[in-house]
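Quick note —
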Amino acid sequence: MIRTITRLAAATLGAFVLVAAASASAQQKYPDRTITMIIPFGAGGSTDIVGRIAAEAMAKNLGVSIVVDNRAGAGGTIGAQAAANAQPDGYTVTMSTTSTHVVGPLTLPSAKYSPVKDFEHVGMIAETPYVLVVSPKLAVKNVQELIDFAKKNPGKLNYGSAGEGSTTHLAGLMFLNATGTKMEHIPYKSNAESTKAVMTDEVQVLFGSMPAVLAQIKAGSIKALAVGSAARSPELPDAPTIAEAGVPGYRATLWLGLSAPAKTPPAVITRLSQALDAAISNPDIAKRLSAAGAEASKMSSGDFTKLISRELEVYGKIVAGMKK
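Predicted structure written out below.
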C-alpha cells in the first residue's frame, strides 16, 4: 500500500513538474503570436493615436504583430472591462488612462472592475494636457470672455466629452465648479466624435485631449483658449494655462499607459515593460508623440501602479464633493 501511494505521489509530482516546465517554457518563448491591444476609445482619439504609436514600436521590439482593437463606450470602461476579463497570458493588453482606470470606475456604476486588483500595470507611455477649445462660431477670444458669456447666457452653451464619467467630462465639471458657470453636458462615445461636434458647433465648448484636437487647432477648425497643464505646452506656446488665464489652481491632464489582466505572469509583464521602455526611449517615437501633443513619460510597472492608486484617492475626493 505504501509503495502504491509513493508511486502515485511520484506520478502526481512528475505531472506537476511537467506542467510547470511547459508553462515556464511557454513564458520563455513569449511572445510567439499576435498580441491584441484593446484601445477603449474610438479611432482617431488621443488614446488611439498614442496607442497605435506605442503598438507599432513595441511590435518591432517583440518581433510579433500587435493588432489594435477599438472598443469605445462608457468613458472607456467597456474596453477596460473586456481587458480585465481577458485571459492573463500576455496576448491581450489595454491602453489604460486617467479615464479608464481612475475617473470611470469612480463615477460609473456599470464599471465592475478594480483598476488595481484586476490589472497588472506595465508602465506609463505619455502624459498630455486637456485643452479648452471652442467652436469657431463662438465669439469669445479667451477664457475670461468664455466665463463672462456663460454667466450672461446660462444654459445656452453645451460642452462635449468623450463619454459620461470620462476625464474630459470631469475636466469640464471642474471648470464649471471653479468658475461658477453652467453649461449642458453632451457626452459622446469618443474623443474623435466630441472633437467633430465642437468643429460643427453641435457643442460650443470642449476640454479635449491634446492629441485629439491638435490637428484641428492648427488647421483653424476650432479655437484653443488655454491648456489644463501646470505649464504651457510646447505644441501650443501661445495658449496660456487655464490657471494663468484666470482660474487659479485649475489643472487637468491625461496620462496614458499600458496594462494587462491580473495574474498575467511576472515574466511576461517584464518583457512587455522592456519593450515599452525601448519604445519610449526611442527619440523618433518621442518626437511622434510630441507632434501628437503627448509627452513621452517613462514610468516603471511598480511606480505606475502606485500612481493609479494615488490618483484614485485624489479624484475620489473630487467626485465625492461633486455628488454632494
